[in-house]
């Protein structure tokens, strides 16, 4: 285990079970949609999850990427959503989008993106997240529930399987809790 990891929260085996289940749910839900299915990966944290998930979906899928920032360098959400890399396509009325996220914290990123992509004309927009931290949500501000959810986790700062702390730890094959002394020193 990496020396900065306090404990493993979601193991490689658990992640494999999750991606298999969600891929089957997506296969079931979009089998008869008649539209193009687009998996929209939110860079950079979702790239590992997206790569594993897309391999297990048997329907034809297209992929694309957006990059948004809602976090600064540290562990606290800044509360603003900036689009750093946009989605450019002309056929959105023929497209069902599934946004693929690594983790939902305040819910601001995803609730903003849903409105944004609907405004751009997508036929439908659903959300898929590997991890959800519902304790971090204030329902009076953002009352958000993902359509597909890997697993609910406690309010801990986690890294690995795409998730970073200051751009480190993304390549770990599991999701782990970062030792607090790493970000408090
Ligand atoms: P939200 O808009 O507050 O839901 O923020 C979601 C984004 O915050 C995620 O896509 C991550 O980039 C980042 N984030 C939230 N919690 C964590 C964490 O525990 N570890 C790493 N990144 C996190
Ligand atoms: Mg992210």
What features would you highlight for this structure?
185 residues; Rossmann fold; 6-stranded mixed beta sheet; 3-stranded antiparallel beta sheet; 25% helix; globular; binds inosinic acid; binds magnesium ion
The count of domains is: 1
Shape: globular
Topology pattern, helix = H, strand = E: EHEHEEEHEEEEH
Beta content comes to: 25-35%
CATH class: Alpha Beta
According to CATH, what is the topology?
Rossmann fold
Structural class category: alpha/beta
Helical content, roughly? Answer: 10-25%
Tell me the CATH architecture. 3-Layer(aba) Sandwich
Note the gap between the termini.
Answer: 21 Å
Description:
The strands form two sheets. The protein has a six-stranded mixed β-sheet. Strands 1-9-8 form a three-stranded antiparallel β-sheet. The chain has 185 residues and is α/β, with parallel strands linked by helices. Strand 5 (95-104), helix 3 and strand 6 (124-132) form a beta-alpha-beta unit. Helix 1 packs across helix 2 (47-56). The protein is globular, with a radius of gyration of 16 Å. It contains four helices and nine strands, in the order E-H-E-H-E-E-E-H-E-E-E-E-H. 32% of the residues are buried. It has one domain (5-69, 78-183): 3-Layer(aba) Sandwich (Rossmann fold), CATH 3.40.50.2020.
């Amino acid at each position: 285990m990496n020396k900065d990891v306090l404990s493993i929260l979601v193991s490689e085996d658990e992640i494999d079970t999750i991606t298999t289940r969600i891929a089957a749910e997506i296969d079931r839900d979009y089998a008869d949609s008649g539209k193009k299915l687009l998996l929209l990966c939110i860079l950079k944290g979702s790239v590992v999850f997206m790569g594993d998930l897309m391999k297990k979906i048997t329907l034809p899928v297209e992929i694309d990427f957006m990059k948004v920032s809602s976090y600064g360098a540290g562990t606290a959400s800044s509360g603003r959503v900036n689009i750093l890399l946009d989605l450019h396509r002309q056929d959105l009325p023929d497209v069902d989008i599934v946004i693929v996220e690594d983790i939902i914290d305040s819910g601001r990123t995803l609730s903003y993106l849903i409105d944004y992509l609907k405004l751009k004309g997508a036929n439908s927009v659903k959300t898929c997240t590997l991890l959800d931290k519902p304790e971090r949500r204030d329902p009076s501000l953002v009352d958000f529930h993902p359509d597909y959810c890997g697993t609910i986790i406690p309010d801990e700062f986690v890294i690995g399987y795409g998730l970073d702390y200051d751009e480190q730890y993304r390549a770990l094959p599991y999701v782990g809790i970062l030792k607090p002394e790493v970000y408090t020193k």
